[in-house]
Design a protein that fits this description.
The complex is a heterodimer of chains A (about 675) and B (about 90). With about 675 residues, chain A is mainly alpha-helical. Chain A has 30 helices and 10 strands. In chain A, strand 1 and strand 2 form a beta hairpin. A 6-stranded antiparallel beta sheet of chain B has the order 1-6-2-3-4-5. The termini of chain B are far apart. The chains are: A mainly alpha (about 675), B alpha+beta (about 90). Chains A and B meet through helix 2, helix 9, helix 10, helix 15 and strand 10 of A and helix 2, strand 3 and strand 5 of B.
Chain lengths: ~675, ~90
């Protein structure tokens, strides 16, 4: 979980660290991110256990905000309440006497407007005044568990009675306790017949009871229509309409997809061109040699492969932040929950899946907005099954090879239909795998769906831009390292081989040149045979018996290995293997021609049949042929466990799918 | 006799209660009770408290989830969650 923190300069002599904890509705944690907040607040040994808490309360929903505030105040940690959205509350006729509220709660209450930065100076001044915890608890919990609190406080070391009871409710998931201490707590709770659920319910009711009396004293609601609530109701009538709502959702998603799929194309091409330019420049300046090769073909290509993702990531997060900020994302969740729940995901998984049709890398990063860990994990695991844009060149090559260029019933372009079928196949597989995974992936959290549908607001553009930059930065620094490292390894495997074999190729190249072959032809011959003699070539040959049942020979084996860098590399590698000059459009036809001519040396049969082509397509539809996805899953899940599981299941699925396809068709 | 009437009245009152999930779009109800349990705590925290008036505002395509208005806030909840909330229509 990412912790957002920063430094706040209070005065010349005072700088404090401010940490933004994952948002919660109440102190009782259920989800993993809520446990993080819980631990920070209740575990005094947590390295970021606060000296002071700034409680940001929502004036438009004061009742519910005060529930959390009152719970935190009862932990007896110094606190100040920053009352946000007072302007919106006032516009809807709600007057709040903040001074009285402050007096009754025993804590400073500062009205702020976070969007416009109002009240922030007052808040800073309040922080400087050495705030204390309120003198008395908001709710006297001793009545709820009279005999339990004292021994519990001794056992847990909690200063406040309420903190002790909170720990009693959640000690099982409390990180800092040893097994022995947990056993003692359990014994104590059992002897007192303590029920966490009963305590929580009773506590919540009593707090709300007190809050109601408090609000009667400090607020006045004028009977006037609230423009914000009114606008929200009218927008919802449209956006949550049982039919119209889905049409609008589809349009918005198509727009996002279009942006990530095609608008990102221009900056991506520009990045590619600049990297190539830089490569040529360096090649001209630096002396030829191993190090120059490593720098240009290994490292620089790797860096290019990282930077090229930036436009897609930033565009997608721009859109997502706008959808989140306006409040629409919770509506997406509402509309899609039923469908996605069956597939082991949640309504918010829809956008990552749709974005996955452009590229899995930004899509997987965007799965962060899914609150439930299990749903988020399943979404991350199945997103690479969506047909991303890098598969398009592979499909184009193979469909052009295997599917005749005719029309079905004189109407539908057959090649186009097959391509469409490949996209649908991705969706079906993602749903199927999600459906199965929900029975295997268990996460220790209570999954409730109930959420608030907030009022619609304009996006905070500064926040949008900041998020775009932050996501780009995180990707480059965290996933980038892994991508560069893997691409250096792949470059090495494809450029180096056993010295003897490589020397033989060089010698024959010299002979060829002397026999007056044209320089272009000789160059091509050299590239083809160097790849064959390289370690990648050897690995391809070792793999052959394993992939022969799928209809693949060792040449495809090489291309499978190199295309782990990115799926579209497959086409380039095949072009190199068949010496057709790398992947231009005319090159594609030549490549298909050469593939048709290729014969199996043992049987004399054509190597590439329709069965092989379809088998390959299924392989690319299912396999995790993408090191960047692997790297980004590592970054998002913070462990190698999930990317490796993903690599294993997708490769297994691809092998099985290709095996079935090839055996059925041939 | 009085006791008996009371019991019958009490039963009648209980029988009138339906779950929040059974309310149709646009219908109102007053929350009467929630069972003991973790889910109820969560729902109460979100503002679904006994005595509050709720109104079903939207129903998603497959009849689930539903959105309800309670106080000034709009909540979205699944049918299975709404099922435990007993309301008097």
């Amino acid at each position: 979980m990412d912790k957002h923190s920063g430094w706040l300069v209070l005065s010349q002599h005072e700088v404090v660290e401010v940490i933004d904890l994952p948002g919660i509705y109440s102190l009782h944690p259920r989800r993993i991110d809520e446990f993080i907040t819980f631990d920070v607040l209740l575990n005094s040994e947590n390295e970021v256990h606060p000296d002071l808490i700034i409680l940001v309360a929502d004036a438009t929903n004061l009742k519910r905000s005060l529930l959390l505030c009152s719970q935190v105040l009862d932990l007896r940690i110094p606190a100040v309440i920053a009352l946000n959205m007072v302007d919106v509350a006032r516009a809807s006729g709600l007057a709040i006497d903040t001074l009285k509220l402050s007096r009754l709660l025993g804590v400073k209450v500062i009205p702020i407007n976070a969007r416009e930065g109002k009240g922030i100076n007052e808040l800073k001044r309040a922080i400087q005044t050495r705030l204390k915890a309120p003198a008395s608890d908001f709710l006297d919990v001793s009545a709820l568990a009279p005999d339990l609190i004292q021994p519990l406080q001794q056992l847990t070391g909690a200063r406040a009675p309420y903190a002790a009871l909170q720990i009693a409710c959640h000690y099982i998931n409390f990180y800092c306790f040893q097994a022995e201490q947990k056993a003692r707590i359990r014994h104590l709770l059992e002897t007192h017949h303590f029920s966490a659920a009963r305590f929580q319910a009773e506590e919540t009711l009593r707090r709300y009871e007190r809050i109601r009396h408090l609000l009667d004293e400090v607020t006045r609601q004028a009977l006037q229509p609230s423009p914000m609530l009114d606008a929200t109701r009218r927008i919802d009538a449209l956006l949550l309409h049982p039919i119209g709502g889905y049409v609008i959702l589809l349009i918005i998603f198509l727009l996002v997809f279009q942006a990530v799929f095609s608008w990102a194309q221009y900056p991506m091409e520009a990045i590619d061109a600049s990297i190539n330019h830089l490569k040529r420049l360096l090649a001209a300046v630096l002396p030829a040699g191993v190090l120059t090769d490593l720098l240009i073909e290994g490292i620089l290509s790797g860096i290019g492969g990282v930077v090229v993702f930036l436009p897609q990531i930033m565009i997608l997060f721009g859109f997502i932040t706008v959808l989140e900020d306006t409040g629409y994302m919770t509506r997406v969740s509402f509309l899609m929950d039923r469908l996605m729940r069956r597939m082991g995901m949640s309504g918010k998984s829809t956008l990552p899946l749709v974005s996955g049709m452009a590229c899995a890398v930004p899509a997987i990063m965007s799965a962060r907005n899914i609150e439930l860990q299990r749903d988020r994990l399943i979404t991350i695991l199945v997103t690479p099954l969506m047909s991303c844009s890098a598969r398009l060149p592979v499909y184009t090559l193979l469909i052009g090879f295997a599917v005749p260029d005719t029309r079905l019933w004189g109407l539908f372009h057959l090649q186009g239909l097959v391509l469409l079928a490949m996209y649908l196949f991705g969706w079906v597989m993602a749903f199927l795998v999600g459906f199965v995974f929900q029975f295997f992936i268990k996460v220790n959290e209570l999954s409730y769906y109930v959420t608030e549908l907030p009022i619609y607001r304009w996006p905070r553009w500064k926040n949008v831009v900041l998020t775009m930059i932050e996501k780009g930065k995180v990707f480059i620094t965290d996933a980038g390292k892994i991508i560069v490292a893997i691409s250096v390894v792949l470059w090495f495997l494809a450029s180096y081989g056993p010295p003897q074999a490589m020397r033989d190729v060089d010698e024959r190249y010299v002979q060829l040149r002397q026999q007056a072959a044209s320089p272009v032809e000789a160059e091509e011959w050299l590239r083809t045979h160097k790849l064959e003699a390289s370690y990648a070539g050897h690995i391809g040959k070792v793999l052959e018996p394993l992939i022969a049942p799928l209809g693949f020979d060792w040449k495809i084996g090489i291309a499978l290995l190199t295309s782990f860098a990115a799926r579209e590399v497959f086409v380039g590698t095949m072009a190199t293997i068949y010496s057709t000059g790398a992947g231009e459009d005319s090159g594609l036809d030549v490549l298909r021609q050469r593939m048709r001519q290729e014969r199996n040396p043992h049987t004399g049969q054509p190597t590439y049949s329709v069965a092989t082509a379809f088998s390959l397509m299924i392989f690319f539809a299912l396999a995790m042929q993408c090191m960047s996805t692997l790297a980004v899953v590592r970054r998002e899940t913070h462990t190698w466990k999930w990317p490796l599981i993903q690599l294993a299941y997708l490769t297994g699925l691809a092998y099985l799918g290709s095996l079935i396809t090839f055996q059925l068709l041939s | 006799m009085f006791l008996f009437v009371n019991i019958v009245m009490g039963m009648k009152k209980r029988n009138q209660l339906i779950s929040l999930a059974e309310l149709k779009k646009g219908q109102r109800g007053i929350i009467q009770e929630l069972p003991e349990g973790e889910l109820s705590v969560k729902l109460m925290e979100m503002g679904l408290l006994p005595g509050e008036t709720v109104r079903v505002e939207h129903v998603a395509l497959w009849g689930d989830p539903i959105s309800v208005k309670v106080g000034n806030s709009l909540l979205s909840l699944r049918k299975e969650e709404a099922q435990v909330v007993l309301v008097e229509p």
